[in-house]
Design a protein that fits this description.
347 residues, two-stranded antiparallel ribbon, Serine Threonine Protein Phosphatase 5, Tetratricopeptide repeat, 73% helix, mainly alpha, globular
Amino acid sequence: MVNDIIEAVRAGLTGDNKADAVYLAEQAEKYAAHENAVEILQAISEMTFALLSDDQKERLKEVMFIGSKRIDQHYNEAVKAANEGKLKDAAEILSKIEEHAEKHFSSTEESNRFSFRNPFEEYLYVHMYKPTKRHERTPFDFSKMLSFYGYILVELRKPQEAVPVLEKAIRFNPVNPEPRYELAEAFKLLLEDEQLLECVKDTLKIANTPYAIARCYCNLGFYAINVKDYDSAVAFYYESLLYAENVNVAGELQHISALTGKKVAPPTRAEVLAAFEKYDIPNGPNQDVVNIAYSLGKYCIDNGGSPNEAMFYLNMVHDLTNDLEVKDMMDKLREKMQADQAAQEDK
């Protein structure tokens, strides 16, 4: 299916470089939220590169390459090294990516540069941050790359070095929870309890999956243990299980039991809500996240947008809320997609 999309995009090229550049930019926007967006956008980038003059290609190579390899190739090598347990080798590669990103892709006085992964993140950013400058999308996901670098530094027990790297990852995508997870781990190692709490609060504002919320609640439990607020810790850990299973929660509850000398009992709903109120944290998903995802999904359906994109947004809403109306919308959309596919096959 991915190859079919790429070939369809390629078939739309006219040979007019100016027109083709506009066309490819439109195609990149069209498939930005596709489940195989990375592969599709990479192919579109290569088509766009082929349109450039030799001088333009040389200038582009300067910012897209480190040495003789593209930045994404270096990143893949870092991932491979990390998977093989060569964390120091991975860190060395990733440090070069950090330096290159800082030199060539930092925000300017005229515009901010972000690594948004899909339109949802862009809309959420605009809603939350109310930017006054225009913003541009970076050609690589530097938020992901620097988040991984931060993770490696935390694994190497270098949290002090990890913090500024992860702060850069957040600047490249302020609504990506991933670097904030790693920042929380760095604060744990640094014994910075209050910074950990603020990091978790910030992450909950942008959490868009049950897993993200569950991880945040577990981090709240960790924080509460550190400040010896064991009742709140129990409430946070139990609440996390409503969003995602975690085998480590049982161990944390046993740890609390050992610290208090008491058997841990499941909290009442009132006790859970009281724990959240105590730390001024709303319980459940951020309604802004839910509303934006719902609006985007509804817009796609009402305006003939991509069914896959609509399903992406609606699935996000349903996962966070279990809303029956949204489930019904998804079922109807799924039936339409199946009917359209069957009609296409009959041709």
